[in-house]
Prior knowledge:
Layout: E1 3-8, H1 10-13, H2 24-29, H3 35-50, E2 54-59, H4 65-76, H5 82-106, E3 111-114, E4 121-123, E5 132-135, H6 138-145, E6 149-153, E7 156-158, E8 164-166, H7 171-183, E9 187-192, E10 213-215, H8 216-224, H9 232-241, E11 245-249, E12 257-260, H10 264-267, E13 273-289, H11 294-304, E14 309-316, E15 321-329, H12 333-347, E16 351-364, H13 373-384, E17 391-395, E18 398-404, H14 408-418
Parallel strand pairs: 1-2, 1-9, 2-6, 3-6, 9-11, 10-12
Antiparallel strand pairs: 4-5, 7-8, 11-12, 13-15, 13-16, 14-15, 16-18, 17-18
Amino acid sequence: MSLIVMKFGGDALGDKGKGENRGGQEMLRGASFHEEKFRHMARIVAERRKRGDSVVIITSAMGDATNRLLAMARALDANPPARELDMLMSTGEQQAIALMAIALHAEGLTAASFTGPQVGIITESVFGKARIRNVDTARLERAIADGVIPVVAGFQGATVDNEFTTLGRGGSDITAVALAAVLKADVCEFYKDVDGILTTDPRICPNARKLDRITYDEMLELAAMGAGILHSRSVEFAKNYQVALHVRSFLHNQPGTFVVEEDKDMEDTVISGVAFNREEAKITIAGVPDRPGTAAAIFDRIAMARIMVDMIIQNAASDGKNDISFTVSRADFAETIRIMKALAEEIGASGVRGDNTMAKLSVVGTGVRSHSDVAAKMFRALADSGINIQMIATSEIKLSCIIAESQLENAVRVVHDALEERVRDVRPA
Length: 429
Protein backbone atom coordinates (compact mmCIF):
# COMPACT_ATOMS: atom_id res chain seq x y z
CA MET A 1 0.00 0.00 0.00
CA SER A 2 1.31 3.43 -0.97
CA LEU A 3 0.63 6.91 0.34
CA ILE A 4 -0.12 9.23 -2.57
CA VAL A 5 -0.50 13.01 -2.42
CA MET A 6 -2.75 14.03 -5.31
CA LYS A 7 -2.83 17.69 -6.30
CA PHE A 8 -5.72 18.92 -8.47
CA GLY A 9 -5.20 22.25 -10.20
CA GLY A 10 -7.80 24.86 -11.02
CA ASP A 11 -8.36 23.56 -14.55
CA ALA A 12 -9.11 20.09 -13.16
CA LEU A 13 -11.97 21.45 -11.06
CA GLY A 14 -13.53 24.37 -12.92
CA ASP A 15 -13.79 26.41 -16.09
CA LYS A 16 -12.26 29.72 -16.97
CA GLY A 17 -14.57 32.73 -16.99
CA LYS A 18 -15.93 34.28 -20.19
CA GLY A 19 -14.48 37.74 -20.07
CA GLU A 20 -14.21 40.32 -17.34
CA ASN A 21 -17.15 40.84 -15.02
CA ARG A 22 -18.02 44.15 -13.41
CA GLY A 23 -19.36 44.43 -9.90
CA GLY A 24 -19.37 41.88 -7.16
CA GLN A 25 -22.72 40.25 -7.91
CA GLU A 26 -21.93 39.72 -11.55
CA MET A 27 -18.59 38.11 -10.67
CA LEU A 28 -20.28 35.75 -8.24
CA ARG A 29 -22.83 34.70 -10.86
CA GLY A 30 -19.92 33.86 -13.14
CA ALA A 31 -18.61 31.18 -10.74
CA SER A 32 -16.53 28.48 -12.45
CA PHE A 33 -18.08 25.42 -10.75
CA HIS A 34 -18.14 22.38 -13.05
CA GLU A 35 -20.02 19.42 -11.58
CA GLU A 36 -18.66 16.77 -13.97
CA LYS A 37 -15.04 17.77 -13.33
CA PHE A 38 -15.48 17.21 -9.60
CA ARG A 39 -17.13 13.85 -10.24
CA HIS A 40 -14.35 12.87 -12.65
CA MET A 41 -11.61 13.67 -10.15
CA ALA A 42 -13.54 11.83 -7.41
CA ARG A 43 -13.62 8.73 -9.65
CA ILE A 44 -9.84 8.98 -10.11
CA VAL A 45 -9.43 9.02 -6.32
CA ALA A 46 -11.85 6.10 -5.97
CA GLU A 47 -9.71 4.02 -8.35
CA ARG A 48 -6.65 4.73 -6.21
CA ARG A 49 -8.48 3.65 -3.09
CA LYS A 50 -9.58 0.42 -4.79
CA ARG A 51 -5.89 -0.38 -5.31
CA GLY A 52 -5.40 -0.09 -1.57
CA ASP A 53 -3.53 3.23 -1.61
CA SER A 54 -4.00 5.91 1.03
CA VAL A 55 -4.45 9.34 -0.50
CA VAL A 56 -4.24 12.97 0.56
CA ILE A 57 -5.75 15.50 -1.82
CA ILE A 58 -4.63 19.10 -2.33
CA THR A 59 -6.77 21.45 -4.40
CA SER A 60 -6.37 24.82 -6.01
CA ALA A 61 -9.29 27.19 -6.41
CA MET A 62 -11.69 26.34 -9.24
CA GLY A 63 -10.84 27.65 -12.69
CA ASP A 64 -10.13 31.36 -12.56
CA ALA A 65 -11.68 31.88 -9.10
CA THR A 66 -8.49 33.47 -7.73
CA ASN A 67 -8.44 36.05 -10.53
CA ARG A 68 -12.11 36.84 -9.97
CA LEU A 69 -11.59 37.34 -6.24
CA LEU A 70 -8.67 39.64 -6.94
CA ALA A 71 -10.79 41.61 -9.42
CA MET A 72 -13.51 42.05 -6.78
CA ALA A 73 -11.02 43.46 -4.31
CA ARG A 74 -9.49 45.84 -6.82
CA ALA A 75 -12.91 47.02 -7.93
CA LEU A 76 -13.24 48.42 -4.41
CA ASP A 77 -9.64 49.52 -3.83
CA ALA A 78 -6.81 49.59 -6.38
CA ASN A 79 -4.38 48.74 -3.57
CA PRO A 80 -6.22 46.47 -1.12
CA PRO A 81 -4.73 45.87 2.36
CA ALA A 82 -2.50 42.78 2.17
CA ARG A 83 -4.09 41.13 5.22
CA GLU A 84 -7.63 41.45 3.86
CA LEU A 85 -6.50 40.30 0.42
CA ASP A 86 -5.11 37.07 1.91
CA MET A 87 -8.31 36.54 3.87
CA LEU A 88 -10.30 36.91 0.65
CA MET A 89 -8.01 34.92 -1.64
CA SER A 90 -7.95 31.92 0.69
CA THR A 91 -11.71 31.43 0.25
CA GLY A 92 -11.27 30.15 -3.31
CA GLU A 93 -9.54 26.99 -2.12
CA GLN A 94 -12.02 26.57 0.72
CA GLN A 95 -14.88 26.32 -1.76
CA ALA A 96 -12.96 23.72 -3.74
CA ILE A 97 -12.07 21.45 -0.81
CA ALA A 98 -15.64 21.33 0.51
CA LEU A 99 -17.03 20.52 -2.93
CA MET A 100 -14.33 17.89 -3.49
CA ALA A 101 -15.12 16.22 -0.17
CA ILE A 102 -18.81 16.19 -1.10
CA ALA A 103 -17.99 14.65 -4.50
CA LEU A 104 -15.96 11.92 -2.76
CA HIS A 105 -18.85 11.18 -0.41
CA ALA A 106 -21.07 10.80 -3.48
CA GLU A 107 -18.64 8.09 -4.67
CA GLY A 108 -19.06 6.24 -1.39
CA LEU A 109 -15.76 7.40 0.12
CA THR A 110 -15.14 8.93 3.53
CA ALA A 111 -13.50 12.33 3.19
CA ALA A 112 -13.09 15.53 5.18
CA SER A 113 -12.03 18.98 4.04
CA PHE A 114 -9.35 20.98 5.89
CA THR A 115 -7.96 24.47 5.50
CA GLY A 116 -4.21 24.96 5.60
CA PRO A 117 -4.28 26.17 9.23
CA GLN A 118 -6.46 23.23 10.26
CA VAL A 119 -3.74 20.79 9.20
CA GLY A 120 -1.03 22.77 10.96
CA ILE A 121 0.62 24.69 8.12
CA ILE A 122 2.47 27.51 9.87
CA THR A 123 4.01 30.26 7.76
CA GLU A 124 6.13 33.32 8.26
CA SER A 125 4.30 36.59 8.99
CA VAL A 126 4.24 37.86 5.41
CA PHE A 127 1.03 38.39 3.48
CA GLY A 128 0.81 37.43 -0.18
CA LYS A 129 4.06 35.45 -0.51
CA ALA A 130 4.53 33.67 2.82
CA ARG A 131 6.91 30.74 3.18
CA ILE A 132 6.05 27.62 5.15
CA ARG A 133 7.93 27.39 8.45
CA ASN A 134 6.44 24.24 9.96
CA VAL A 135 3.76 21.60 9.41
CA ASP A 136 2.15 19.68 12.28
CA THR A 137 0.97 16.44 10.69
CA ALA A 138 -0.88 15.02 13.71
CA ARG A 139 -4.38 15.79 12.43
CA LEU A 140 -3.63 14.50 8.93
CA GLU A 141 -2.08 11.31 10.26
CA ARG A 142 -5.13 10.65 12.46
CA ALA A 143 -7.45 11.10 9.48
CA ILE A 144 -5.40 8.74 7.31
CA ALA A 145 -5.24 6.13 10.07
CA ASP A 146 -9.04 6.33 10.43
CA GLY A 147 -9.52 5.70 6.69
CA VAL A 148 -10.56 9.28 5.99
CA ILE A 149 -9.37 11.00 2.81
CA PRO A 150 -8.09 14.46 3.79
CA VAL A 151 -8.89 17.16 1.23
CA VAL A 152 -6.56 20.06 2.00
CA ALA A 153 -6.71 23.63 0.73
CA GLY A 154 -3.55 24.55 -1.10
CA PHE A 155 -2.02 28.02 -1.26
CA GLN A 156 -2.69 28.93 2.38
CA GLY A 157 -1.50 28.68 5.94
CA ALA A 158 -1.47 30.77 9.09
CA THR A 159 1.01 32.57 11.28
CA VAL A 160 1.65 31.60 14.88
CA ASP A 161 -0.85 34.38 15.72
CA ASN A 162 -3.55 32.65 13.61
CA GLU A 163 -3.51 35.20 10.81
CA PHE A 164 -4.44 33.71 7.42
CA THR A 165 -1.60 33.91 4.88
CA THR A 166 -1.21 32.84 1.27
CA LEU A 167 1.88 31.39 -0.40
CA GLY A 168 1.76 33.36 -3.64
CA ARG A 169 0.67 32.31 -7.12
CA GLY A 170 1.26 28.60 -7.63
CA GLY A 171 1.26 28.13 -3.87
CA SER A 172 -0.94 25.03 -4.02
CA ASP A 173 1.99 23.19 -5.66
CA ILE A 174 4.11 24.17 -2.67
CA THR A 175 1.45 22.91 -0.24
CA ALA A 176 1.31 19.57 -2.03
CA VAL A 177 5.07 19.00 -1.99
CA ALA A 178 5.41 20.17 1.63
CA LEU A 179 2.75 17.74 2.82
CA ALA A 180 4.24 14.94 0.73
CA ALA A 181 7.61 15.62 2.36
CA VAL A 182 6.42 15.66 5.97
CA LEU A 183 4.11 12.67 5.46
CA LYS A 184 6.88 10.76 3.63
CA ALA A 185 4.52 10.04 0.75
CA ASP A 186 5.61 7.61 -1.95
CA VAL A 187 4.82 10.13 -4.69
CA CYS A 188 3.26 13.55 -5.17
CA GLU A 189 1.07 13.59 -8.29
CA PHE A 190 0.04 16.75 -10.13
CA TYR A 191 -3.06 16.43 -12.31
CA LYS A 192 -2.94 18.87 -15.22
CA ASP A 193 -4.60 19.48 -18.58
CA VAL A 194 -1.39 18.38 -20.32
CA ASP A 195 0.15 14.92 -20.74
CA GLY A 196 3.22 15.80 -18.69
CA ILE A 197 6.31 17.97 -19.12
CA LEU A 198 6.73 18.85 -22.80
CA THR A 199 9.88 19.97 -24.54
CA THR A 200 8.22 23.34 -25.20
CA ASP A 201 4.79 24.91 -25.58
CA PRO A 202 2.87 22.86 -28.19
CA ARG A 203 0.69 25.86 -29.02
CA ILE A 204 3.80 27.50 -30.44
CA CYS A 205 5.81 24.50 -31.62
CA PRO A 206 3.82 21.53 -33.00
CA ASN A 207 6.93 19.33 -32.70
CA ALA A 208 6.90 19.53 -28.90
CA ARG A 209 6.75 16.15 -27.21
CA LYS A 210 6.37 14.69 -23.75
CA LEU A 211 9.36 13.70 -21.65
CA ASP A 212 9.11 10.55 -19.56
CA ARG A 213 11.74 11.75 -17.08
CA ILE A 214 13.40 15.01 -16.15
CA THR A 215 15.79 15.89 -13.35
CA TYR A 216 14.95 18.13 -10.43
CA ASP A 217 17.55 20.65 -11.60
CA GLU A 218 16.19 20.73 -15.14
CA MET A 219 12.62 21.10 -13.92
CA LEU A 220 13.69 23.85 -11.56
CA GLU A 221 15.31 25.76 -14.41
CA LEU A 222 12.32 25.25 -16.71
CA ALA A 223 9.94 26.43 -13.98
CA ALA A 224 12.11 29.47 -13.24
CA MET A 225 12.36 30.26 -16.96
CA GLY A 226 8.60 30.41 -17.36
CA ALA A 227 7.54 26.86 -18.31
CA GLY A 228 4.57 27.24 -15.93
CA ILE A 229 3.82 23.54 -15.28
CA LEU A 230 5.14 23.47 -11.70
CA HIS A 231 5.96 26.32 -9.34
CA SER A 232 9.74 26.71 -9.01
CA ARG A 233 9.56 26.81 -5.19
CA SER A 234 7.71 23.50 -5.15
CA VAL A 235 10.40 21.87 -7.31
CA GLU A 236 13.12 23.26 -5.05
CA PHE A 237 11.27 21.86 -2.04
CA ALA A 238 10.95 18.47 -3.74
CA LYS A 239 14.65 18.37 -4.54
CA ASN A 240 15.68 19.33 -1.01
CA TYR A 241 13.45 16.69 0.59
CA GLN A 242 13.68 14.05 -2.16
CA VAL A 243 9.96 14.03 -2.93
CA ALA A 244 9.13 12.01 -6.05
CA LEU A 245 6.97 14.07 -8.44
CA HIS A 246 4.70 12.84 -11.21
CA VAL A 247 3.09 15.35 -13.58
CA ARG A 248 0.19 13.68 -15.41
CA SER A 249 -3.05 14.37 -17.22
CA PHE A 250 -6.49 14.22 -15.61
CA LEU A 251 -7.93 13.43 -19.05
CA HIS A 252 -6.55 9.87 -19.25
CA ASN A 253 -4.74 7.27 -17.14
CA GLN A 254 -1.44 7.16 -19.03
CA PRO A 255 1.83 7.91 -17.19
CA GLY A 256 3.07 11.46 -17.41
CA THR A 257 6.51 12.82 -16.57
CA PHE A 258 8.49 11.81 -13.49
CA VAL A 259 10.77 14.38 -11.88
CA VAL A 260 13.72 12.45 -10.50
CA GLU A 261 17.36 12.54 -9.51
CA GLU A 262 19.84 12.56 -12.39
CA ASP A 263 21.24 9.20 -13.47
CA LYS A 264 23.92 8.12 -15.94
CA ASP A 265 21.50 7.59 -18.84
CA MET A 266 20.19 11.12 -18.45
CA GLU A 267 23.71 12.56 -18.55
CA ASP A 268 24.14 11.17 -22.08
CA THR A 269 21.38 13.37 -23.47
CA VAL A 270 21.47 17.10 -23.93
CA ILE A 271 18.23 19.07 -23.97
CA SER A 272 15.08 18.67 -21.90
CA GLY A 273 13.23 21.73 -23.03
CA VAL A 274 13.01 25.15 -24.60
CA ALA A 275 11.37 27.58 -22.17
CA PHE A 276 10.44 31.22 -22.48
CA ASN A 277 9.19 34.17 -20.49
CA ARG A 278 7.36 37.04 -22.16
CA GLU A 279 7.41 39.27 -19.07
CA GLU A 280 10.95 40.64 -19.37
CA ALA A 281 12.14 44.25 -19.33
CA LYS A 282 15.65 45.48 -20.03
CA ILE A 283 17.18 48.56 -18.38
CA THR A 284 20.51 50.17 -19.21
CA ILE A 285 22.35 52.75 -17.12
CA ALA A 286 24.72 54.51 -19.50
CA GLY A 287 27.99 56.24 -18.66
CA VAL A 288 28.43 54.78 -15.18
CA PRO A 289 31.73 55.93 -13.58
CA ASP A 290 34.20 53.03 -13.46
CA ARG A 291 35.04 53.01 -9.76
CA PRO A 292 34.62 50.50 -6.90
CA GLY A 293 31.20 50.45 -5.26
CA THR A 294 29.19 51.89 -8.13
CA ALA A 295 27.60 48.60 -9.14
CA ALA A 296 26.90 47.87 -5.47
CA ALA A 297 25.08 51.19 -5.15
CA ILE A 298 22.90 50.37 -8.15
CA PHE A 299 21.84 46.93 -7.05
CA ASP A 300 21.56 47.85 -3.36
CA ARG A 301 18.95 50.42 -4.35
CA ILE A 302 17.05 47.86 -6.41
CA ALA A 303 17.20 45.31 -3.60
CA MET A 304 15.80 47.85 -1.15
CA ALA A 305 12.72 48.03 -3.38
CA ARG A 306 12.45 44.20 -3.31
CA ILE A 307 12.83 44.02 -7.07
CA MET A 308 14.34 40.83 -8.45
CA VAL A 309 17.10 41.21 -11.06
CA ASP A 310 17.75 38.47 -13.58
CA MET A 311 20.53 38.97 -16.15
CA ILE A 312 23.30 41.54 -15.68
CA ILE A 313 25.85 42.70 -18.25
CA GLN A 314 28.54 45.37 -17.83
CA ASN A 315 30.27 46.81 -20.88
CA ALA A 316 33.61 48.48 -20.10
CA ALA A 317 34.53 51.61 -22.03
CA SER A 318 37.91 53.27 -22.58
CA ASP A 319 36.97 56.62 -21.09
CA GLY A 320 36.45 55.39 -17.55
CA LYS A 321 32.72 54.92 -18.07
CA ASN A 322 30.67 51.72 -18.23
CA ASP A 323 27.21 50.78 -19.42
CA ILE A 324 25.38 48.39 -17.08
CA SER A 325 22.35 46.52 -18.42
CA PHE A 326 20.06 44.19 -16.51
CA THR A 327 16.62 42.65 -16.74
CA VAL A 328 13.67 42.72 -14.35
CA SER A 329 10.08 41.56 -14.52
CA ARG A 330 7.92 43.74 -16.76
CA ALA A 331 5.70 44.40 -13.73
CA ASP A 332 8.66 46.11 -12.02
CA PHE A 333 9.77 48.11 -15.06
CA ALA A 334 8.24 51.51 -14.23
CA GLU A 335 9.39 51.43 -10.60
CA THR A 336 12.90 50.34 -11.58
CA ILE A 337 13.19 53.12 -14.17
CA ARG A 338 12.09 55.67 -11.54
CA ILE A 339 14.67 54.40 -9.04
CA MET A 340 17.48 54.29 -11.60
CA LYS A 341 16.82 57.80 -12.91
CA ALA A 342 17.13 59.18 -9.40
CA LEU A 343 20.28 57.15 -8.75
CA ALA A 344 21.90 58.08 -12.07
CA GLU A 345 22.19 61.68 -10.93
CA GLU A 346 23.70 60.64 -7.60
CA ILE A 347 26.43 58.47 -9.12
CA GLY A 348 27.14 60.68 -12.13
CA ALA A 349 25.80 58.35 -14.84
CA SER A 350 24.87 59.92 -18.17
CA GLY A 351 21.38 58.46 -18.48
CA VAL A 352 18.91 55.59 -18.20
CA ARG A 353 17.03 53.86 -20.97
CA GLY A 354 14.72 50.88 -20.96
CA ASP A 355 12.60 48.54 -23.07
CA ASN A 356 9.67 46.60 -21.62
CA THR A 357 8.96 44.59 -24.76
CA MET A 358 11.61 41.94 -24.18
CA ALA A 359 11.35 38.17 -23.81
CA LYS A 360 13.72 35.50 -22.52
CA LEU A 361 14.39 32.30 -24.43
CA SER A 362 16.14 29.45 -22.61
CA VAL A 363 17.47 26.03 -23.55
CA VAL A 364 17.64 23.71 -20.52
CA GLY A 365 19.29 20.31 -20.12
CA THR A 366 21.95 18.44 -18.20
CA GLY A 367 23.94 18.05 -21.40
CA VAL A 368 24.41 21.78 -21.94
CA ARG A 369 27.52 21.63 -19.76
CA SER A 370 29.19 18.89 -21.81
CA HIS A 371 28.16 19.49 -25.43
CA SER A 372 29.87 22.43 -27.09
CA ASP A 373 27.58 22.58 -30.10
CA VAL A 374 24.40 23.60 -28.22
CA ALA A 375 25.22 27.32 -28.12
CA ALA A 376 26.47 27.30 -31.71
CA LYS A 377 23.29 25.66 -33.02
CA MET A 378 21.03 27.92 -30.97
CA PHE A 379 22.73 31.14 -32.06
CA ARG A 380 22.96 30.02 -35.71
CA ALA A 381 19.24 29.21 -35.79
CA LEU A 382 18.40 32.65 -34.39
CA ALA A 383 20.79 34.42 -36.77
CA ASP A 384 19.43 32.61 -39.83
CA SER A 385 15.95 33.81 -38.84
CA GLY A 386 17.07 37.42 -38.41
CA ILE A 387 16.54 37.39 -34.64
CA ASN A 388 18.92 39.67 -32.73
CA ILE A 389 20.26 38.57 -29.35
CA GLN A 390 20.54 41.43 -26.86
CA MET A 391 21.83 39.63 -23.76
CA ILE A 392 23.19 36.15 -23.00
CA ALA A 393 23.50 34.23 -19.72
CA THR A 394 24.63 30.68 -19.02
CA SER A 395 24.72 28.16 -16.20
CA GLU A 396 25.68 24.48 -16.00
CA ILE A 397 22.38 23.33 -17.45
CA LYS A 398 20.92 26.47 -19.03
CA LEU A 399 21.59 28.84 -21.90
CA SER A 400 19.39 31.95 -22.03
CA CYS A 401 19.14 35.00 -24.23
CA ILE A 402 17.07 38.16 -24.31
CA ILE A 403 15.30 38.96 -27.58
CA ALA A 404 12.41 41.14 -28.73
CA GLU A 405 9.07 39.68 -27.66
CA SER A 406 7.72 40.21 -31.20
CA GLN A 407 10.19 37.55 -32.40
CA LEU A 408 9.71 35.09 -29.55
CA GLU A 409 7.38 32.52 -31.08
CA ASN A 410 9.47 32.16 -34.21
CA ALA A 411 12.58 31.90 -32.01
CA VAL A 412 11.05 29.06 -29.97
CA ARG A 413 10.25 27.10 -33.12
CA VAL A 414 13.61 27.52 -34.86
CA VAL A 415 15.65 26.76 -31.73
CA HIS A 416 13.54 23.71 -30.85
CA ASP A 417 13.88 22.40 -34.42
CA ALA A 418 17.62 23.09 -34.51
CA LEU A 419 18.15 21.10 -31.31
CA GLU A 420 15.55 18.39 -31.96
CA GLU A 421 18.19 15.69 -32.36
CA ARG A 422 19.56 16.64 -28.95
CA VAL A 423 16.23 16.48 -27.10
CA ARG A 424 16.04 13.68 -24.56
CA ASP A 425 14.90 10.40 -26.04
CA VAL A 426 11.56 9.09 -24.85
CA ARG A 427 12.09 6.00 -22.70
CA PRO A 428 10.18 4.15 -19.97
CA ALA A 429 10.37 5.88 -16.59
